[in-house]
UniProtKB/TrEMBL annotation:
<protein>
    <submittedName>
        <fullName>Cupin domain-containing protein</fullName>
    </submittedName>
</protein>
<dbReference type="Pfam" id="PF07883">
    <property type="entry name" value="Cupin_2"/>
</dbReference>
<dbReference type="InterPro" id="IPR014710">
    <property type="entry name" value="RmlC-like_jellyroll"/>
</dbReference>
<dbReference type="InterPro" id="IPR013096">
    <property type="entry name" value="Cupin_2"/>
</dbReference>
<dbReference type="InterPro" id="IPR011051">
    <property type="entry name" value="RmlC_Cupin_sf"/>
</dbReference>
<feature type="domain" description="Cupin type-2">
    <location>
        <begin position="41"/>
        <end position="109"/>
    </location>
</feature>
Length: 128
């Protein structure tokens, strides 16, 4: 697994109308020898939002490390979330994260291939 402490392409910073966010890649599919697409750290500044549309081809597990905020899945009521809570997004689910106005929101996200895709792939194992 690769852990990045520098801005070498594995870290992205978003700064615009939705506020400030940092997305840091901790590992990618080829490095993990699993059905994992990626393992990432996301930090949203107070009041910032992150729109997750366009990633509906994967399944995700979002774990709230620090802070509080809300997740709004397409067509659903907002979920109010705080430290230690987990959100599971099935294949085809989109939504938006927003940090509360008074503190940053830090998340770990594990993105996985949907079962329909991974069942069709050849078995992958690390080399000896």
């Amino acid at each position: 697994m690769i852990v990045s402490r520098t801005h070498d392409g594995l870290t992205e910073t978003f700064d615009g109308e939705l506020g400030n966010a940092v997305w840091r890649c901790l590992g990618r599919r080829g490095m993990l020898f699993s059905e994992c697409e990626s393992f990432d750290f996301v930090r949203l500044a107070p009041g910032a939002a992150l729109d997750e549309r366009g990633r509906g081809d994967i399944e995700e597990a979002w774990f709230v490390l620090r802070g509080s905020g809300e997740f709004v899945a397409d067509g659903e009521a907002p979920l109010q979330l705080r430290e230690g809570e987990l959100v599971l997004c099935s294949h085809g689910t989109g939504g938006r994260w927003r940090a509360t106005a008074d503190s940053p929101l830090e998340l770990l996200v594990l993105a996985l291939m949907p079962a329909a895709v991974s069942r069709r792939l050849p078995r992958r194992t690390p080399a000896d």
